Amino acid sequence: MVSLTIDGRKVEAMEGSTLLDVAHQQCIYIPTLCHNDALASYGACRLCMVEIAKGGRSKLVASCLYLVEEGLEVITNSERVLNSRKLVVELLLARCPEVKLIQDLARQLGITKTSYKKGNNQCILCGMCVRSCQEVVGVSALGFVGRGSERTVGTPYLEASDVCIGCGSCAYICPTGVITMEDVDDTRIIRMNDVSSTWETKLKLKQCAVCGNYFVPEAQVAYIIKWLELPTDTFDACPNCR
Predict the structure, then answer these.
(1) HEC sequence for the chain
(2) Where are the domains of the chain?
(3) Rounded to 5°, angle at Cα 233 from 228 and 236
(4) pTM
(5) Do 87 and 19 contact (CB within 8 A), yes or no?
(6) What band does 150 get if pLDDT is binned at 50, 70 and 90?
């Protein structure tokens, strides 16, 4: 175990834990936009910055990446920390002024307007869709495209993906809802329609052998059967008819 101090509170933490994990375990609020317990720490949004003191010096670090250390002093709401968060949110408010998630964060921090040029994006580039597709699903149908202000999320060449299995993990984990998924008749449609990135992937749904309803993408069934080495007729019936 490691002993450290967070906002003046002495806590014990498992070695190898991140500051963000320990803070959340202690019900200490640290905002974040790119963190999910199912994914590896990424540090993209920089909203989880905290101030640490060590050896008489202090600095800002991303709490989702920084590991606990014996005797470390952590402050989650210092002036430096709040100024850093305000800058991040103000930039995001300029990029995505109509996204409710960003509007709520701006309100919490007392930000009423942004001094930067406004855009009209909905994607905040948190990368959770890309990472869930790679780390959880293991398909890598999505990736980052471009650099700098032109960076966006998309399928290769922003065309229909030939490796997507239609699981919808990207739509489920997207914090702003810019990636959507819907089933229309015998087709599942996953799409992103943002200012800087527009793409759509359609996949054929499997029909239940009992009731005739369409319930899951054929590509997803084939992927799971191959991955788990299941009998080929495992998903011939929908959950309601099994």
Answers:
(1) CEEEEECCEEEEECCCCEHHHHHHHCCCCCCCCCCCCCCCCCCCCCCCEEEEEECCEEEEEECCCCECCCCCEEECCCHHHHHHHHHHHHHHHHHCCCCHHHHHHHHHCCCCCCCCCCCCCCCCCCCHHHHHHHHHHCCCCCEEECCHHHCEEECHHHCCCCCCCCCCHHHHHCCCCCEEEEEECCEEEEEEECCCCEEEEEEEEEECCCCCCEEEEHHHHHHHHHHHCCCCCCCCCCHHHC
(2) 2-77, 128-241
(3) 115
(4) 0.89
(5) no
(6) confident
List all residues 6 or more positions away from 228 whose beta carbon is below 8 Å from its beta carbon.
none
Q: Which residue has the tokens 């992103």?
A: 192
18-70 pLDDT, tens digit each: 999 999 999 999 999 999 999 999 999 999 999 999 888 999 999 999 999 99
- 57-93 per-position pLDDT tens digit: 999 999 999 999 999 999 999 999 999 999 999 999 9
CATH of domain 2-77: 3.10.20.740
Tokens describing residue 175: 């914090």
